[in-house]
Structures are given as C-alpha cells and as structure tokens.
Amino acid sequence: MSAQPETTTSSTPSEATGGDTAMNRRTVLRAAGVGGAGVAGAAALAACGGSTTPTTTAPSTTTSASTTSSGSSTSSSATSASATGSASAAAPSGTPVKTADVPVGGGVINASGLFVVTQPSAGQFKAFSAVCTHQGCTVNKVASGMIDCPCHQSQFDISTGTPTSSSQAKSPLPAKTATVSGDSVYIA
Q1: Closest among 119, 125, 156 to 139, alpha carbons compared
Q2: What would the pLDDT profile of 105-125 be if each residue is shown by its tens digit?
Q3: Of 47, 70, 94, 165, which one is least surrounded by beta carbons within 10 A?
C-alpha cells in the first residue's frame, strides 16, 4: 500500500469528443460569459435610465423628470417605489439633510458625518468635506457665502469649496455628491 492518493480520471465517450450532453469546461465558461454579458448589459441599460447622481440638482422635479424620460415602465415602477418607500430608487444612498434646513446663501454642517451642505442659490445644493485642507480641523460656521474654519481662519466659497486668497488653506474642500429627492438632499 502506498501513502500517495490515487488520481483517476474518467470520461464518457461524449465528454471526450466534446458532445452536446457533456458539461465540460468550455460549456461552463461559455455559460458564464453569456451570463456575465447579460449582467453587464443590464447594468449599462440601468445606467441609461436617467437616474444619475449629479452634484447639483434642482428640487425633486429634476428627479421626477428624468425618471419619466426613461420610459413608462421605469416611471411606473418609480412611482410605486416612491409610494411604498421600499425600493432603493425611492431614496438615494447617503445621509439625508432636510432641504428646508439649508438656508439659501448659507449652509449647515454635519460634524458627525464630516460634511457641509450649502445652497448657494435657491434649489442649488452643494456638499463638501467639513475637514479643512489646511491642518484637518473641522469647519464650524457657514455665513456670508463662506464656510469658516476656526483653527486658522481659512474660508471657503459655498459654491465651489475654494479657499479665499487670504486663507492659510490652499486646497479646496473635497466635493461630495448631493442628490435631492423629495424634501431632502442626500450626501454621499
């Protein structure tokens, strides 16, 4: 008796000749390729559905218009999802902030989420990191069209996140995605 395990291979005549009834490597790879192409195609079609995540959106009318333009089946599913609140299309991903809480020409800071949401003009929402690019302090105030850092008095524009020329910070606040849906803006 030998300590080495025996290795045996067997094949039926149809496997050996690549017949239709055998499940061989080529068949499995073809099926995976077709399935993978179908998944990729479905993802590409979903991407064309008009539900992009713009950094600036108008209030919920933009979301509604884009779902309507992609076709009646998408529109009806979005309507039913909105009514039930159970589908992911009804609420974008991210942390919600009530649009009514963000003043026009100002903004709000979410210190726990480390982001700031601004509304430079009515219906236009922007979001940025709340971490100052100078030395990593958290910004603490939005006033007079500026986001203020308390550590070294750097100021950033509420529209672009760009620091003023007199700021010690020289890099803009990193932008985040702000998506308006219903009465909230979702920050991701």
Answers
A1: 156
A2: 999 999 999 999 999 999 999
A3: 165
What average pLDDT does the chain have? 71
Structure-token pair, residue 86: 């159970």
- In the DSSP assignment, the letter for residue 144 is T
pLDDT tens sequence across 30-59: 555 555 544 444 444 444 444 343 333 333
Contacts of 70 (CB under 8 A, 6+ apart): 48, 49, 50, 51
DSSP letters for 58-113: -STHHHHHHHHHT-HHHHHHHHHHHHH--STTTS-SSEEEEGGGS-BT-EEEETTT
Return the CATH number of 95-187, one of 3.10.20.30, 2.102.10.10, 3.40.50.300, 3.40.50.720: 2.102.10.10
Q: What is the number of residues in the chain? A: 188
Residue 145's beta-bridge partner residues?
A: none
Provide the token pair at 101. 């809480």
- Rounded mean pLDDT, 95-107: 97
Please list the residues that pair with 187 across neighbouring strands: 95, 178
Does 34 or 82 have the greater pLDDT score?
Answer: 34
- Domain map of the chain by residue range? 23-52, 95-187
Given a contact cutoff of 8 angstroms between Cβ atoms, the answer to whether 67 and 78 are in contact is yes
- pLDDT, position 66: 34
